[in-house]
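Run log, item B.
One chain of 83 residues. Sequence copied directly from the ordering sheet:
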Amino acid sequence: MDDWIAGWLAGVVPLREAAGFRILGAWVDREHDRFFWVIGYSGADGFAAANDRYYASQERVSLTPDPAELIEDAAATAVERVL
Protein backbone atom coordinates (compact mmCIF):
# COMPACT_ATOMS: atom_id res chain seq x y z
CA MET A 1 0.00 0.00 0.00
CA ASP A 2 2.83 2.39 0.79
CA ASP A 3 4.30 1.81 -2.69
CA TRP A 4 0.89 2.47 -4.24
CA ILE A 5 0.47 5.72 -2.28
CA ALA A 6 3.98 6.92 -3.19
CA GLY A 7 3.35 6.23 -6.88
CA TRP A 8 -0.07 7.84 -6.75
CA LEU A 9 1.33 10.98 -5.11
CA ALA A 10 4.27 11.23 -7.52
CA GLY A 11 2.46 10.32 -10.74
CA VAL A 12 -1.31 10.38 -10.69
CA VAL A 13 -1.89 13.45 -8.52
CA PRO A 14 0.30 15.85 -10.53
CA LEU A 15 -1.15 14.62 -13.84
CA ARG A 16 -4.73 14.90 -12.61
CA GLU A 17 -4.11 18.41 -11.32
CA ALA A 18 -2.43 19.44 -14.59
CA ALA A 19 -5.54 18.17 -16.41
CA GLY A 20 -7.74 20.46 -14.32
CA PHE A 21 -8.96 18.00 -11.69
CA ARG A 22 -8.98 18.77 -7.97
CA ILE A 23 -8.04 16.11 -5.45
CA LEU A 24 -10.63 16.62 -2.70
CA GLY A 25 -9.33 13.93 -0.38
CA ALA A 26 -7.75 10.49 -0.15
CA TRP A 27 -7.94 7.81 2.53
CA VAL A 28 -6.53 4.35 3.11
CA ASP A 29 -8.16 1.43 4.92
CA ARG A 30 -5.06 -0.60 5.71
CA GLU A 31 -6.96 -3.39 7.43
CA HIS A 32 -8.78 -4.21 4.19
CA ASP A 33 -6.03 -2.99 1.82
CA ARG A 34 -8.29 -0.35 0.26
CA PHE A 35 -7.60 3.11 -1.06
CA PHE A 36 -10.34 5.71 -1.55
CA TRP A 37 -10.14 9.12 -3.13
CA VAL A 38 -12.45 11.89 -4.23
CA ILE A 39 -11.70 14.05 -7.24
CA GLY A 40 -13.59 16.91 -8.77
CA TYR A 41 -13.69 18.62 -12.12
CA SER A 42 -15.65 21.76 -12.93
CA GLY A 43 -14.76 22.41 -16.57
CA ALA A 44 -17.54 23.17 -19.06
CA ASP A 45 -16.80 19.96 -20.98
CA GLY A 46 -17.72 17.82 -17.98
CA PHE A 47 -15.99 15.16 -15.93
CA ALA A 48 -16.40 12.30 -18.42
CA ALA A 49 -14.76 14.18 -21.30
CA ALA A 50 -11.90 15.38 -19.10
CA ASN A 51 -11.43 11.88 -17.70
CA ASP A 52 -11.26 10.40 -21.21
CA ARG A 53 -8.62 13.00 -22.18
CA TYR A 54 -6.64 12.25 -19.02
CA TYR A 55 -6.51 8.50 -19.70
CA ALA A 56 -5.64 9.06 -23.39
CA SER A 57 -2.85 11.56 -22.61
CA GLN A 58 0.71 10.52 -23.37
CA GLU A 59 1.72 11.46 -19.82
CA ARG A 60 -0.81 9.05 -18.31
CA VAL A 61 -0.04 6.28 -20.81
CA SER A 62 3.66 6.66 -19.95
CA LEU A 63 3.32 6.36 -16.15
CA THR A 64 5.62 3.66 -14.81
CA PRO A 65 4.50 1.55 -13.19
CA ASP A 66 1.05 1.80 -14.69
CA PRO A 67 -1.24 2.47 -11.70
CA ALA A 68 -3.94 0.29 -13.24
CA GLU A 69 -1.64 -2.73 -12.97
CA LEU A 70 -1.54 -2.26 -9.19
CA ILE A 71 -5.31 -2.19 -8.74
CA GLU A 72 -7.03 -5.47 -7.97
CA ASP A 73 -10.58 -4.10 -8.12
CA ALA A 74 -11.89 -0.62 -8.81
CA ALA A 75 -15.24 1.11 -8.52
CA ALA A 76 -16.17 4.65 -9.45
CA THR A 77 -19.29 6.55 -8.46
CA ALA A 78 -20.41 10.00 -9.51
CA VAL A 79 -21.78 12.03 -6.63
CA GLU A 80 -23.32 15.45 -6.18
CA ARG A 81 -22.57 17.83 -3.32
CA VAL A 82 -25.54 18.52 -1.05
CA LEU A 83 -23.77 20.31 1.81
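Observations after the first pass:
- The mean pLDDT is 93.
- Residues 2-70 form one domain.
Flagged for discussion on Thursday.
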